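Annex B. Sample input.
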Amino acid sequence: MCRSRDLKFIYIFVALFGLLLISNGTAEARSSNPGLKSRVGLVVDLDSGQALYEKNADESVPIASITKLMSAMVLIDSGVPLLESITITKEDIDRYKGSRSKLQTGTTLLRAEALKLALMASENRAAAALSRVFPGGKLAFVAAMNEKAVVLGMENSFFVDSTGLRPGNVSSARDLLKLIRASMDYPLIKQYSTTREFKLIAKRGKRKVNLSYVNSNRLVRNSRWDIGLQKTGYISEAGQCLVMQTTVTGKSIAMIFLDSWGKLTRLGDAGRTRRWLERRAASKKN
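Annex B, continued. Sample output.
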């Protein structure tokens, strides 16, 4: 009888010890990585250059509208007048993916306004028009994009259009880190990409048109986040994508999430990464 009680006690002890090991293992796993749901991810301390976490970071994949960061750099580098008016035409309509736009054909706005819409609201017709009216047209614009990629050392990247609607726009998370670093040197890209909302008065023929936009990344409208640059993207081949520079525990952090399966997964990954970084910082203090 006594022996039976002893065996029962041993079984209970072993079971509790096993649960403790599992609990510790889970806690250790959580502390060692942010638990990203995106298929591709990269988290980097921009000040030290240290990669804090990476997942399939060298794989070249479609990047959707993250492409617009490269488009913005090419446009600004060209020196074309940003306060010059451009008009949306039928050529700017997306007939490949059928994406929607508030910019109807015949709408006239400033080149700077089109750039802002492309960055903060991921306006595809705006991005298409910017490349169409570029000196030399779309072919020259795309060529400049690929030349810029070579200059930045983006070896696993290639661009085929200014919007990102084509799956032929590809890059790796490691390359996109270089794109983020380069984009941070453009105050206008930082400002436009993080604009929370934008209301403009455009012209459609002789008639004035009021247009209202909000940022495609809801995190820029969240007071808990300090975001210095960002870009979202989505096409079916790329999944949900997000790249951004943000400050966490006083450090400048680059977050890159590609091929997220759910509409909110990329935002969830951003939140998981921030909490993970905060736990890491707290554990170092203790």
